[in-house]
Specification:
Strand content: 15-25%
Shape: globular
Structural class: alpha/beta
Pfam family, one: Glyco_hydro_25
GO molecular function: lysozyme activity
Number of strands: 11
Mean pLDDT: 81
CATH topology: TIM Barrel
Family: Belongs to the glycosyl hydrolase 25 family.
CATH architecture: Alpha-Beta Barrel
Strand order of the largest sheet: 3-4-6-7-8-9-10-11
InterPro entries: GH, Glyco_hydro_25, Glyco_hydro_fam25_subgr
Helix content: 10-25%
Keywords: Glycosidase, Hydrolase
Radius of gyration: 17 Å
CATH class: Alpha Beta
Length: 251
């Protein structure tokens, strides 16, 4: 894969015009980027609500016009799982999201039965990271644990994936998880460097793993398989933190 140029991030959206998890092949529970070159956009009043969804082949064919009409701003799209599985709807979903001016992001579902570097290579060779895209995401949850795993070794392997993807794409990935999984498997202070996409449903405020106590969350998956009126019936609902800049690749 040819080396991509370093993206320029940090675009604050002042007017809304366009908010790691669907169940993977093996899932049974759900469990600011710091690019090399940064340009700060002029300060503007952030929107109160930045809504998104995350999708995969489980949603079938997505009607992107209806998603747009439902005031969705961004979509995360499952790209890969492990070292060999490519979501069959990934490419189509990415094209559809961009055609309707939705910010698009790609995520990888991590499994412990495959080498982390092979998984990272597979992911970066599958996605076409560029303009209009949000930072890539690593989905870490119970469904990705195969057999007995030592938490220390797991963290070392996950960091290998994160470092490879950052070097290849020039942007820090975001970590998707929940507080239970994070407090068990993501205890290294090195994870503080990464933004958090937290999953927790049916609460007014999500609980983050201890490592992110000071940093807080970037995205909150606040409901699982919720309905969007006038759109597809089964998608995950995501809220972008209004206290943070809404970030996409731009030139």
């Amino acid at each position: 894969m040819k080396k991509l140029p370093n993206p320029i991030f940090c675009m604050v959206i002042s007017c809304i015009i366009f908010s790691c998890s669907e169940k993977s092949e093996s899932e049974d529970t759900i469990t600011k980027p710091e690019p090399n070159a940064v340009t700060e956009a002029p300060k503007a009043k952030a929107p109160k609500t930045i809504l998104g969804i995350d999708v995969s082949h489980f949603q079938g064919d997505v009607n992107w016009q209806e998603i747009k009409d439902a005031n969705i701003i961004f979509v995360y799209d499952k790209a890969t799982e492990g070292a060999t599985f490519t979501d069959p709807k990934y490419a189509k979903n990415k094209v559809g999201a961009h055609e309707y001016d939705l910010a698009h992001g790609s995520y990888h579902f991590y499994t412990t039965d495959s080498d982390p570097i092979k998984q990272a290579e597979f992911f970066t060779n599958t996605i076409d990271y560029g303009i209009g895209d949000m930072p890539p995401v690593l989905d870490l949850e119970k469904g990705g644990i195969k057999g007995t795993v030592d938490p220390k070794k797991f963290q070392e392997e996950v960091l290998k994936w994160l470092n490879y993807v950052e070097q290849k794409l020039g942007v820090k990935p975001v970590i998707y998880t929940n507080h239970t999984f994070g407090d068990k498997y993501l205890t290294s202070t090195k994870f503080e460097e990464y933004q958090l996409w937290i999953a927790e449903y049916g609460v007014e405020t999500p609980k983050v793993p201890k490592i992110w106590d000071n940093k807080g969350w970037l995205i909150w998956q606040r409901s699982e398989r919720g309905a969007i009126e006038g759109a597809i019936s089964q998608v995950d609902h995501d809220l972008y933190n209004p206290k943070k800049s809404f970030e996409v690749v731009k030139k």
